[in-house]
Every structure is written in structure tokens, then in C-alpha cells.
Amino acid sequence: MNDGIERITRDYTKHPELLFVTMWAIAHIGHFLRKGSALDPFVWTAMFSAVFLIAKPWSGRRLALLAIVQLAYLFKEMPFTDNHLYIMAFINAGLLLAVIKNLSNKKGYLNSIKQSLSYTSIALLLIYFAAAFAKLNSGFFDTTYSCAVSMFYDSISVFTGEKFLSPGLESLLTFFIAGTELMIPILLLFGMTRNLGMLILILFHLGISISLTATALDFTIVLFALIIPFLSSKSRREVISSINSLSRYFLNLTSSSKVFLPGLFFLGLLFLKAAS
Q1: What is the mean pLDDT of residues 261-268?
Q2: What's the pLDDT score for residue 92?
Q3: What's the whole-model pTM score?
Q4: Gap between the Cα atoms of 235 and 245, Å rounded
Q5: How deeply is 2 buried, as exposed, middle or buried, from its count of CB atoms within 10 A (0-12, 13-18, 19+)?
Q6: 30 with 205: CB under 8 angstroms?
Q7: Of 19, 18, 17, 43, nearest to 30 (Cα)?
């Protein structure tokens, strides 16, 4: 098993685009666990497709399968679905075209994914800036109706259920949220401020996703996959090294099927219970 980890780590180091593919698959699992119905076969198909892709991220066919399933799921749910699903579909459409272009050629597939990372980066900048710009309206700054206030209390509900901010601080919060979201894509756009932008983005979205009931939780998972292309080569190597260490720990922890299989069954029951 450790030899397998070493081989995968070498592949990730040589082809950092595989890190994005893996994180993108994990993002799908997180989104469907959060928003999907346990009785929907599309949800299970999407999650199994994501697991298959994680097992072999250099497979263009597996990435294409995940993209097709997610796009089909969006078509089934339209028009009554969340905007995060549209964002994922927009990215998946570009990845699917890249895969189809070089489906029979592993090297060509990896090059296509590497080239498509520019597409995902531009898409994230446009989507994030558009979302931030859309908040510049009177409703967002009205603390009675502002999602900034409601999401703040939702995110800290794990600590307290009380609304403890004064009206003045709630009003200040709306300006802080709007300013932060406008600043992030600008910081990501320039190389000299990119690391600061990623740091603010990660801390900001972790902050609004502390509670498991937070409405931004599923988008945070998707967003963390989309910032992979912004990482420097050094940062990617550090992330890959961390994944290597976690993989070794996980394999040691689950080396016996007596531990792994019941744990997997228990997680399935939790999902069914949470989604029912």
C-alpha cells in the first residue's frame, strides 16, 4: 500500500493538475452529501463516479463520467436548484470538452487538464467578482434581510444561538462582508498579492462554514478545489506532502476490513439519516 502511495505522490508531483482533479471529485462528494437526496439515484451515481475518479485521477474517462453525471443532474433539477450547481456545471462543461479532445491519449489528457486550469481560474475570478458585485444593493445592507447577517449567525450557531451583535455592528458586518468579497478576486488576479488573497479567501470561507448547518458549507468545499490552480509550485508540493502523510495514516488506520467496512456502513447510515 505504501508503494502505491509513493507512486501516486510522484504522479501528483510530476502532474500537479491531478491534485485539482482529485479535489474536484472530493468537492462533488461534499456537495451531494450536503444537498443531495438519499433516494435520488443521480446522487449516488455522482458520488460513486467521484470515488472512482479519486482512485484514478489520471483517467480521462472517469473525469468525463463525473462531468456528464453532474450535468445530467443539473438538467434534471432545473430550474429549481441552487446557483452552486450551475457553477459546478460551468466548470464541468469546460473539463468535459478538454477530456473529449484527448480522451484516448493519457499525456494529451493531462496536458488538456493543465491548460483548462486557466479556464477554471478565470471562471472563478469572474464568478466570485460577479457574486460580490451583486451584493452591492440596498437589500444586502439592510440588516433585517441581509444574508450577511443571517449567514453570520448561522455559522456561529455551533457556539451560540443568540443574536448578540448590536444593530450598528450588524450594519458594519454587511460592509465588511461586501468589501472582503470584492477584494478577494482583485488580490487573486495579481501575482504579488495572490497568496494574501488565497489566505483571506480560505479564512473567510472557513469562518462562514464553521457550523454544519451553514448554507455556505457546500460552496466552500467547491471553492477550495477551484483555488488549486492559483497555488504556486512550492505550495502544491507542500499540499501533496500533506496528502501523502494523511494517506499513510488513513491506510494504517483502515488496514483491517474489520474497521473499514463497518465504518463505511456507519457513514452511509449517517448520510441516509441526515438526508431523510
Answers
A1: 51
A2: 92
A3: 0.77
A4: 16
A5: exposed
A6: no
A7: 43
Give me the chain's average pLDDT, please: 77
Residue 190 Cα distances to 114, 199, 224, 231, angstroms? 20, 14, 19, 13
User: How far is 134 from 129, CA to CA, in rounded Å?
Assistant: 8
Say how far residue 124 (Cα) sits from the centre of its chain. Answer: 12
Distance CA(91)–CA(227), nearest Å, equals 13
User: Which amino acid would we find at residue 20?
Assistant: F
Cell of 15: 502532474
In angstroms, the CA 15 to CA 10 distance is 8
- Pairwise CA distance, residues 16 & 117, whole Å: 11
- Is the pLDDT score of 67 beyond 80? yes
Backbone φ and ψ of 183, nearest 5°: -75, -35
Which residues have C-beta within 8 Å of that of residue 239, sequence separation ≥ 6? Answer: 19, 231
Cell numbers placing 218:
457546500
Spatial contact of 225 and 120, defined as CB atoms under 8 Å apart: no
For residue 134, the one-letter residue type is A
The cell numbers describing 84, all together, are 452552486
Query: Within 1-146, where are the H helices?
Result: 2-14, 17-35, 41-55, 60-77, 83-101, 106-134, 138-141
Using CA atoms, how far residue 8 sits from 42, 241, 243, 255, in Å, is 29, 11, 10, 18
- 134-144 pLDDT tens trace: 888 888 888 88
Percent of the chain with pLDDT over 90: 8
- Other beta carbons within 10 angstroms of residue 258's beta carbon come to 9
Task: State how far the Cα of 131 lies from the Cα of 211, in Å rounded to an integer.
Answer: 22
| Residues 6+ positions from 206 with CB-CB distance below 8 Å | 220
